[in-house]
Amino acid sequence: MTRTAYVTGSTGFLGVNLVHALVEDGWHVIALRRRSSNTRDLNPLDIEQVEGDVLDLESLRRTLPAKVDAVFNVAADTSMWSRLNERQNRINIDGTRNIVQAALEKKVGRFIHTSSIGAFGNIHGPVISESTPSRGREAQINYYRSKYFSELEVDKGLAQGLDAVILNPAQIVGRFDYHYTPQMFDSLRRGLMPGMPRGSMVLGHARDYAHAHVAAFSKGRTGERYILGGVHASFHEVFNVIGELVNRNVPARPLPPVALNCIAYLLETVSLLTRQEPMLTREKVFLLNHPLRVSSAKAERELGFTTCSLQEMFSDCYRWMQQAGLA
Q1: Which end of the chain is more exposed for a tag (fewer CB within 10 A), N or C?
Q2: pLDDT for 141-184, tens place per residue?
Q3: Residue among 80, 37, 33, 28 nearest 53 (CA)
Q4: Could you tell me if 289 and 198 are in contact, meaning their C-beta atoms sit under 8 angstroms apart?
Q5: Which neighbouring-strand residues pair with 169?
Q6: Residue 123 has pLDDT above 80, yes or no
Q7: Strand order of the sheet with strand 231-234?
Q8: Residue 262's CB: how many other CB atoms inside 10 A?
Q9: What's the burial of 100, exposed, middle or buried (CB within 10 Å: 0-12/13-18/19+)?
Q10: Cα distances (Å, whole numbers) of residue 13 to 17, 94, 205
């Protein structure tokens, strides 16, 4: 019997990858999209698209079928620009509250919530695992705080009988990314990288994160969270891989945090006039200059999660960028 999934955030980076993974696994997909959403990556698929918004509870009640097998709540605002904090909080916190409420009312089979490693807050030093106490409430980055509070909305649903699982992915690399990864390629190609940030990141392939979401439906344990990590790499290692793909040299010298902050301040000042999110913000600078280490052992053990090398991630992404006219 074909299972049915209701997916919020279906036109976003991870959402599109998840919809593809569900279709490949034989699911019938109901993809929630806003009227203004670009559906170019969903239109070729044999799925059902419905119009609504996580900020509109009535639209969720109207489009979410009773007793649907699974709700995958992937909708999120990932901005790192303080001018968008209010919008971000509405989408990430209020939106989660709405979809949890709708899921409870419609008695859905299972609720898979996409959170973020950022929900743990600004933890630098120890390896983050599911047992690490969260500092998300006091995080200086609003995105981190909003994802922490979105998890609390899921916890409230659990207390009311919702069968929910939370996933905490790290940095995603892969197809259907129109923003973050293309910016990295473009910055290096255009010589806009005078030096390397001093921090490190954890990266996973979008395809593998999507498969972990599908696996969470049948293998995840109710009320549990699973960290989806991947490859631990310095920014210099990441840009070396990108440099090989675009045939550009990568600057070896470290870029002092004060220099990055000055650049971010300048770009944020310009953004007051353009009203466009700057490529670099002070919140991003904070992340660029701190190390991050996480453990995916629980997801590997219980969900069968695994991911690939940096070379495969960025090569796949670059091939897609070329096909999409972004490279």
Answers
A1: N
A2: 999 999 999 999 999 999 999 999 999 999 999 999 999 999 99
A3: 33
A4: yes
A5: 228
A6: no
A7: 171-173, 200-205, 231-234
A8: 12
A9: buried
A10: 7, 21, 12
